[in-house]
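Ticket #4471: complex job returned nothing on first submit. Input attached below:
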Amino acid sequence: MIKDARILTIDLTKEQSKTEILPAEIYRKYPGGSALGMYLMLKKMDPGVDPLSPDNLLIFSVSPLTGIPISGQSRMCVTTKSPLTGTAGDSQVGGFIPVHVKGNGYDSIVITGKAKRPVYLFIDKDKVEFRNAEAMWGKVTGEAEKLIIEDLGDSKIESSIIGPAGENQVLFANIMHMRSRANGRNGVGAVMGSKNLKALVVKRQSIMKPEDPDGMKTLTLDVKDRIAANAVMVDTATNGSAGVVDFHGPEGFLPTRNWEDGHLEDWIKIAGTTITETILKQRETCFGCAVRCKGVVEVPGKADPEYGGPEYETVATFGSYCGNTDLGDICHANQLCNMYGLDTISCGAVIAFAMDCYERGLLTKEQTDGLELKFGDGSVFGPLIKKIAYKEKGIGELLAQGSARAAEIIGNGAEELAVTCKKQEMPAHMVQMKPNLAINYAVNNFGADHQSSEHDPTLMAADDSNDWIWANMLESFEKCDAYGVLDANKAKFALATQKFYSTLDTLCLCQFVWGPSWQLYGPAELVEFCKYGIGWDTSIKELQEIGERRINMMRMFNVKLGYTRKDDCLPPKAFLKIPNGPNAGVGITKEDFEKALDAYYEYAGWDKETGIPTDETLKRLSLEWLG
Amino acid sequence: MTVNKEETVLPEGTTVAQLLEMRGVKSRSSVWVNGKQLLLAEYADSTLKEGDTVRILRVVAGG
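Support reply: We reran it on our side without changes. The output follows.
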């Protein structure tokens, strides 16, 4: 069953901490991760605070399931008010720190205030230390990690660290873990920097045991067979997420030259299989995961294995997005982002945006500090990323604000070139191929995100595939047999799978392992995991409601800030037809998008004119307290 | 026959599974033959014949 949650609240201004208990009957409605974080934000914080002020909360949350050994359960959510989007903020990380936050006895760590000097937090169960981080301030993540180990005289720790970009409050700064895992999106690293907090460090602790070990074995003992029987899992274990390039590339759906096209000539040069065959050094894992999808690459002079390797999004944003097919430059950019603490999606996309502006004459060489920002030239990544991380006057300071704000400053039509939703750069999954993402990029409460719903090809899958069977456990869908289709069926799919993904972000489960389609474990296995893992008798219906509740909490946070339907929109580039390649001519129209949005609001129980949840919806979800 | 709108010549007796392999497409892709979607279980035994219209869509994951 779900037990009481233990919340550690830390005030950096006063250098004080205390532990609070959230009763089990409340915790079951908001069982961890993103839902717990949003519940605490809404209860403890005025949504109107300046995201970079001491009043903003920075919340690290895990879930009742975290730490029970099974693949894909070691995730941690950061909740805050995002300085990039100005909305509710949310970002997830894997690795090993989630398990040890839980092992120290906490479901959530809520940080408020601002330290008088740079500090890092060291937590060893009930002991919370505010330690001097002046020696680490200014250091890149890998160096800071080493200094922390030296300072503590203990290497049996896990840490979440910001780099110089977070310290300098770059609006898309991230929080790094293990030098290669990131709470990447929404500028959560800038919030941490604004608090003079260099790192959250926890002592490694013993691992949790499941409630029903024999029951758990029915899910874990045959894991190798489960992987072998699932072609996507085999690909993920072999090529990591970068293997997605091998699907999008030949179909002509890699966002290319800042979304002017989907067809990238020579996509094979940046394919996941090419990475595996040429520069992959090894594969790493997160705690307890048999999939081992994390790639580590080595490119002499450009990428050190210490900083991991590029995920699909990084390959695409620094690759096709920038018209670049040089893997060495992509890996170098990945390493620099991990060192300085920058979100690779926003960073690659903002550079592609700058290239677009430069090629159209909206930015001149004088404005780019002498850099020639041409599509296809990855040699500019090194100097430009450093300028962004340190907010150097000129192009660095401009791009450190993200594409949307930079576009407003540049003017002269640059606004048309920013590929953002709610000021967050769009990931590298094209809405022309996956139109349900057009809805989810637009409505998502923390800006464009590709991990907030399942992707459209699930609706194309064969009747006897897991993809089709698992998705239809959530709702009954109609089959789709073409790209570019955006209709009420897609709106229904967008919402139903958004709820499930929302639950995964609440229970802190990896979406490459758990999901309603191609993943290793499906909805029915999740119900079994809850039962065997912690003795929680739940159902797909309850899990879907938990996910829906979290979406509506985020929505209401934004509503209190004045967000409405007018903010659920797409950038102009989302409506371009693919001009070249095997799927030339495929696209979505504004008319279809607005109709699908109407259908989505209707399914969600939100007012169609305003996009605000109705009183009935809030009541149904036990969220009357937000009305 | 036509495969994804392109005229294609295949050896007689080619199955759907073999066609996917020839094109380097993963075995879990969706296949329609003459407008009817096949089950995954049918790929190995479904033999293509002259005049068939085949449509293949890659079932792509997230990431």
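Chain A is about 35% helix and 10% strand. Closing as resolved unless it happens again.
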